[in-house]
């Protein structure tokens, strides 16, 4: 059966984004220059981890990860990634507001799911073919998937800075038993992979 | 000049202890069995990091790390470590309540400092001889030292579990620039050493 995995870059104090996201500031308030420096400044060192991020047959993401729009859909927002997003697969976007699917170049189609994280993961599982399901973020969506016992593997990419405020991985999630299945550092990041030990979590 | 260093074991969500510390429960509420499992179950794998923890000429610690007593001193509490604590050096304990120094076997003497973290670090620096100053914990004391710009190096030992509540490293500390100077994993822990980049912090 497909695993449900999640990659997320965080500060040393656990934040994946600051408050007050806007179109100009996708990661919100604060100096976020270090959050993804490992990806952009040292891609060769981190080739395996970068490749793993988009190695899934389907993706689930929160609305803030998809865009800065709140409330009813308006305009023609198609994500932060330009005409050919890096997913090349169906992406199920959590939202309270229905919207018709948006097909992009390269095989990415954004589907809008209004009935919650469990339904979104179920739709991702139902995508034909082999491969994992990836919860792509942000932290709120990751935390929903953790709290619901949906996640099998969490891959934290811990960057060398602290943010002090924002949206944080694990906030509001009941205590978890984890198994450290991999941990490796490169110049600008420590990659830690945890298997979520599900005993005691909701089915 | 001596560096001011800090070793602290934390959960993946950043906690070093739960709430409600007591003499029977030095790390407070919650299942803390994984926090120090790396020390006790796999000491051989972690020999270098274990040795580094007590490799200082003087130590600074918070009152909760020294003991469960609150308010005025009473009884004859001499720390959690028995007659011969592992420090073998002066230990400056932050407290609001004066107390005469307590000399232990093996060279550890507990001194009680009532004028704050800066004074405690200054007294530790003034100890004769070469060697680093270690801020031994807990998180509140670590955070005070970070916020005051006193810490040069923070060594996090990240254990595979989440706690969900308690005292957390970095809470209340302004955003920090860090340099990841070392990162290494063993079976039950990821050790990450950060140099604190002090530009912009108080002198």
Question: Describe it for me?
Answer:
The structure is a homodimer of 203-residue chains. The first copy, chain A, has 203 residues and is an alpha/beta fold. Chain A has a domain at 4-17 and 27-67 and 83-166: Dihydrofolate Reductase, subunit A. Chain A is 17% helix and 30% strand. Chain A has 5 helices and 11 strands; from the N terminus they run E-E-H-H-E-H-E-E-E-H-E-H-E-E-E-E. In chain A, strands 5-6-4-3-7-1-8-11-10 form a 9-stranded mixed sheet, sandwiched between helices. A two-stranded antiparallel ribbon of chain A has the order 2-9. In chain A, a hairpin with a 2-residue loop joins strand 10 and strand 11 (189-197). The longest helix of chain A is centred in the middle third of the chain and has 9 residues, at 117-125. Chains A and B meet through strand 10 and strand 11 of A and strand 10 and strand 11 of B.
